[in-house]
Design a protein that fits this description.
Rossmann fold; 9 helices; alpha/beta; single chain
Length: about 210
C-alpha cells in the first residue's frame, strides 16, 4: 500500500507598500498595496478547480486580506494562526537594506549569509521563529482531512519552509524567495511531518 501523503499549497502573501519601497518587514501590520491585491487575484485564477479545505494565515492585515480573497474564491474555511507570522525583527523593521547594512554591519552579514544565526536587536531570533512556523504548519497538516490546505505566508516564513522542503540550507533563503513562483503545490509523506518537527527543534538548538 502506498504511504499516506499530505498535499498542500503555499502562497506568498501579497506585497505591501514596504515591499515596494524595499523596506524590511517582520511583524509590522500593513495592508496590501494595489499591486499586492492584483497579484492575489491572479493567484486565485491558478487555483481554479483546486479542492482547498482551509486557508491558514497569520493574523496581520495583508495576510488576512490575501487569505480572504483565496477563501472566498475557493469556498474554503479561513483560520488565523499567529505562529505562522514572520519573525519580529525589532529595530530592523522599516529599514531599507542599505540602512540595515550601514547601521548593523555584522547582523546584515548574517541576514544575507546565515539567517538562522541572526537575532535582531529587540527582536526574535530567526531560528526560534523558524521553529514556531514549522510546528504550526506540522500541526495544521496533521489536522487536515480530505481537502488540501493552503498556507498564506510572508516571504521569510515562506522561504524558510521552501528551503526545508527542497532540502536546501537556510543560507539559500534569498534565492528560494527570488526563484520560486508565488503559488506552489506540495506533497509530503506522513512520516515527514515528524521530520518537520525535528527540523524546528534543530533550528532552536543551532541558535543556542
Amino acid at each position: 500500500m502506498a504511504a499516506a501523503r499530505h498535499i498542500f499549497w503555499l502562497l506568498c502573501c501579497g506585497e505591501t507598500t514596504w515591499s515596494r519601497e524595499g523596506r524590511i518587514r517582520g511583524r509590522t501590520d500593513l495592508p496590501l498595496s494595489s499591486s499586492g491585491r492584483s497579484a492575489i487575484s491572479a493567484d486565485v485564477v491558478r487555483l481554479a478547480g483546486a479542492s482547498i479545505g482551509t486557508v491558514y494565515h497569520p493574523g496581520d492585515e495583508a495576510a488576512t486580506e490575501s487569505a480572504t480573497v483565496v477563501a472566498e474564491a475557493t469556498r474554503a474555511r479561513l483560520r488565523s494562526i499567529d505562529d505562522l507570522a514572520d519573525p519580529d525583527l525589532g529595530l530592523l523593521e522599516g529599514l531599507t537594506e542599505q540602512t540595515f547594512a550601514e547601521r548593523y554591519g555584522k547582523r546584515y552579514k548574517s541576514w544575507r549569509e546565515d539567517p538562522l544565526a541572526l537575532t535582531p536587536p529587540d527582536g526574535e531570533s530567526l531560528a526560534h521563529a523558524r521553529a514556531r512556523i514549522f510546528e504550526a504548519v506540522a500541526r495544521a497538516l496533521k489536522r487536515s482531512r480530505g481537502a488540501e490546505p493552503l498556507f498564506v505566508l510572508h516571504q521569510l516564513a515562506l522561504g524558510m519552509l521552501q528551503c526545508w522542503l527542497a532540502d536546501r540550507p537556510t543560507s539559500a533563503l534569498w534565492s528560494m524567495i527570488r526563484d520560486h513562483p508565488r503559488l506552489e503545490r506540495y506533497a509530503i509523506a506522513a512520516d515527514q511531518l515528524e521530520a518537520l518537527d525535528a527540523a524546528a527543534r534543530e533550528a532552536v538548538g543551532e541558535a543556542g
